[in-house]
UniProtKB/TrEMBL annotation:
<feature type="domain" description="Gcp-like">
    <location>
        <begin position="102"/>
        <end position="405"/>
    </location>
</feature>
<dbReference type="GO" id="GO:0061711">
    <property type="term" value="F:tRNA N(6)-L-threonylcarbamoyladenine synthase activity"/>
</dbReference>
<keyword id="KW-0808">Transferase</keyword>
<keyword id="KW-0819">tRNA processing</keyword>
<dbReference type="Pfam" id="PF00814">
    <property type="entry name" value="TsaD"/>
</dbReference>
<dbReference type="InterPro" id="IPR022450">
    <property type="entry name" value="TsaD"/>
</dbReference>
<dbReference type="InterPro" id="IPR043129">
    <property type="entry name" value="ATPase_NBD"/>
</dbReference>
<keyword id="KW-0496">Mitochondrion</keyword>
<protein>
    <recommendedName>
        <fullName>Glycoprotease 1</fullName>
    </recommendedName>
</protein>
<dbReference type="InterPro" id="IPR017861">
    <property type="entry name" value="KAE1/TsaD"/>
</dbReference>
<keyword id="KW-0012">Acyltransferase</keyword>
<keyword id="KW-0479">Metal-binding</keyword>
<comment type="subunit">
    <text>Homodimer.</text>
</comment>
<dbReference type="InterPro" id="IPR000905">
    <property type="entry name" value="Gcp-like_dom"/>
</dbReference>
<dbReference type="GO" id="GO:0002949">
    <property type="term" value="P:tRNA threonylcarbamoyladenosine modification"/>
</dbReference>
<dbReference type="GO" id="GO:0046872">
    <property type="term" value="F:metal ion binding"/>
</dbReference>
<comment type="function">
    <text>Required for the formation of a threonylcarbamoyl group on adenosine at position 37 (t(6)A37) in mitochondrial tRNAs that read codons beginning with adenine. Probably involved in the transfer of the threonylcarbamoyl moiety of threonylcarbamoyl-AMP (TC-AMP) to the N6 group of A37. Involved in mitochondrial genome maintenance.</text>
</comment>
Length: 472
């Protein structure tokens, strides 16, 4: 069985050696679609080799389901055990999750010290930091789950979007594990994972739903029609909200060791949110896009005009200085979130027109761990009788659970690659997608303020999945 598997053409793997040309992409996804899921419920213990190659490759139709219906047998879910690996930005994370959503382990090694020192992510240093800890992080995840690699069913790994140097570390590790232990591998979209982890937490959460994904690098409003099928209602034209929180924290001289957002949130509790008059971004643009660069500049100017010295740590500031910093933190947070609220209201209205059955707004990504953000957005959804779903804070910030869970969701519908070879050649080119839109843009929501060039150049996850489905 293994030999027939290894004899498969290299195009079978999305993570395999691929030419840089985007022409190649449909082939890799086409290849994916050939790997249909075999769903005989009597399979126990879980063994992908039985699933993929039950007896022969001669008549695939006899063995592989063409249905995209999720496999939902209880024993299947319990037997499925997936390792998730995440290294797209500054956290090295791994987790092991069962098909039924049980989290067996979760490990995150953060680069907070580097972040505090440089005030942002430096790709080369982040890559080194990932490389130093990746083996240990994965080993810890296995140890905490009391499992060995042999007991895994598959490995899921983020292939984008993110920093390619960093993504590469995770993908290399995933391929080493999958190759050595003959495990299928699942390529994961980082932002899809932020959205889908909400389905692990809230079992009632069905497609379609609306999602606001807010992190250090992304500000996305997406309508999730189905797994792998998203419409982008809005995105940022410049900076994401997390970046604005981080810079505000840095300029206010706050402790960045837990990233800037939590520090601003904490200080904001002491401040008067009405005291500094920042203007809400993009009021004149009646769309769902975001902009935080202007607000950042307003904060910088306010800090300069109050003679706040970021080199003086908050703990050493006079009480007047401290309250002045707190006022800026609170005022910034209020306006940053007002911008989210305004965009979300419009997005709910658009989403209800496109998919009238939506019942939930998912808010996820690092900034969704902010309690003020959650409270304000809860009020927005109540107006429309929708329900807000926010994963717990440790599943909002980057983590391995969301990658493992997204791997599980994709694995169930047959979207995975067979095991890679045990060793990749030195000149191996990985299928990394540093810029990778989640879905196509909603035509009515296009903003003149937003440059669409970047989004068009890179095929979205949705377009790749749709192309693959059409070829089935
Ligand atoms: O999703 P995430 O962990 O990584 C990215 O994919 O970017 O998000 C990190 C971002 C950082 O900008 C961090 O400052 C922000 O999430 N963040 C917060 C809070 N916790 C994390 N922002 C505001 N309030 C928080 N409590
Ligand atoms: Zn993230």
């Amino acid at each position: 069985m293994v030999s027939s598997l290894l004899a498969l053409p290299s195009t079978f793997s999305r993570l395999n050696l691929v030419q840089k040309s985007s022409i190649f992409i449909p082939f890799t996804f086409k290849a994916l679609s050939l790997l249909k899921f075999h769903k005989q419920p009597r399979l126990r213990p879980f063994n992908y080799r039985l699933l993929h190659f039950p007896s022969s490759l001669n008549s695939p139709e006899a063995h592989f389901s063409t249905s995209r219906r999720p496999v939902s047998s209880k024993s299947f879910d319990v037997d499925l055990v997936v390792l998730g690996i995440e290294t797209s930005c500054d956290d090295t994370a791994a987790a092991i999750v069962r098909g039924n959503g049980e989290i067996l382990s979760q490990v995150v090694s953060s680069q907070a010290d580097l972040l505090a020192r440089y005030g942002g992510v430096a790709p080369k240093m982040a890559e080194e930091a990932h490389s130093q800890v990746i083996d240990q992080v994965v080993q810890d995840a296995l140890d905490k789950a009391s499992l060995t690699e042999r007991e895994l069913s598959a490995v899921a790994v983020t292939i984008g979007p993110g920093l390619s140097l960093c993504l590469r570390v995770g993908v290399q590790k995933a391929r080493r594990v999958a190759g050595s232990f003959n495990l299928p591998i699942i390529s994961v979209h980082h932002m899809e994972a932020h959205a889908l982890v909400a389905r692990l937490i809230e079992k009632e959460l069905q497609f379609p739903f609306l999602a606001l994904l807010i992190s250090g690098g992304h500000n996305l409003l997406v309508l999730a029609h189905d797994l792998g099928h998203y419409t982008q209602l809005g995105t940022t034209i410049d900076d994401a909200i997390g970046e604005a929180f981080d810079k505000t924290a840095k300029w206010l001289g706050l402790d960045m060791r837990k990233s800037g957002g939590p520090a601003v949130e904490q200080l904001a509790q002491e401040g008067d949110a009405e005291s500094v008059r920042f203007s809400i971004p993009m009021k004149q643009h009646k769309d769902c896009n975001f902009s935080y660069a202007g607000l950042k500049t307003q904060v910088k100017l306010a800090i300069a005009s109050r003679n706040i010295d970021a080199k003086v740590p908050l703990s050493c500031a006079s009480s007047l200085d401290r309250s002045s910093r707190a006022d800026i933190a609170a005022s910034f947070q209020r306006v940053a979130v007002l911008h989210l609220e305004e965009r979300c209201e419009r997005a709910v209205e658009w989403a209800l027109k496109i998919e009238p059955s939506i019942k939930h707004l998912v808010v996820s990504g690092g900034v969704a761990s902010n309690q003020y953000v959650r409270a304000r957005l809860d009020q927005v959804v109540q107006k429309y009788s929708l329900q807000l779903v926010c994963p717990p804070p440790n599943l909002c910030t980057d983590n391995g659970v969301m990658i493992a869970w997204t791997g599980i969701e994709n694995f169930r519908v047959g979207r995975y690659d067979p095991p890679p070879p045990a060793n990749d050649p030195d000149d191996f080119m990985y299928d990394l997608r540093p810029r990778w839109p989640l879905g196509e843009e909603y035509a009515e929501g296009r903003s003149e303020a937003r440059s669409l060039r970047r989004a068009r150049v890179h095929p979205s996850l949705t377009s790749l999945v749709q192309a693959s489905l059409q070829q089935q």
